[in-house]
Amino acid sequence: HPKFPELTLWDLPGTGTPEFKPKEYLKKVQFSRYDFFIIVSSDRFTVNDAMLASEIQKMKKRFYFVRTKVDQAMEAERRKPNFSEKETLKVIREYCLCNLRKEGEADPRVFLISSWHLNMYEFPLLQKTLANDLNDLKRPLLIMAMPAFSREHLQEKKAAMEALIWKKALISCAIGMIPVPGVSLMFDIGLLVHTMKEFCKAFGLDDESLRNLANRVGKPVDVLKSAVKKTPMANQITQEFVQSLTYKSLLYGTAMVLEELTDFVPVLGSLAGGVNYLATTYFMLTVFLDDVLEDAESILAKVAE
Question: Which of the 8 DSSP states describes residue 33?
Answer without folding.
Answer: G
